[in-house]
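quick one if you have a minute, typing this from the bus. theres a chain ive been looking at and ive put its sequence and its fold in token form underneath. please have a look and point out which stretches look like helix strand or loop to you. anything you notice is useful, everything is just below.

***
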Amino acid sequence: MTQAVELWTLCFEDSRETAEEFFSLCGVGTLTEYSPQGELAGMASLVPVSDSLGGRGYYAYGVCVHPSFRGQGLFRKLMLRCEETAREQGASYLCLIPADAELRDTYIRMGYEIPVELCTGGREGVAIRSGSEDFSRFAQTDAEPSVEMRGLFKPFDESYSSDMKFYFPERMGEC
């Protein structure tokens, strides 16, 4: 846990308290990749989500690679492991919100081509809700609370094929 907190604070410039709080959330699973010397080289977290169509999936969050290990394909390896793990757990999809345009392009090249919206208001459309307690505070952006932010969605089956909206309610995932 200590290495994960350290990597989180390094990559996301969050406080140690914020990182520790994230890793203590109910239902969040974190995949890790280590160097041959035992250093945490990268990680990605999967937050359980569900949608109004009855499907289950995961929201990929906190995907990062230590600066010393970048350029070695670990990011792609972590994302492939996220997809594999999600499928093994019976998920129908993986969704995410890229931090910037360059990362968005990377995810699109990896097959995350269906745009979705993160909505902090309203309940119209197809809703995907997180299954982790109070996850909304970790998905905040500089946008106003009622503004919709764009994310990407990768279905594992044919039941999802058009624009969708997913929601992060104020309180989530009482496990």
Q: What stands out?
A: Residues 120-127, 129-137, 140-148, 168-175 have pLDDT under 50 and may be disordered. Helices lie at 2-12, 16-23, 74-88, 101-109. The radius of gyration is 15 Å.
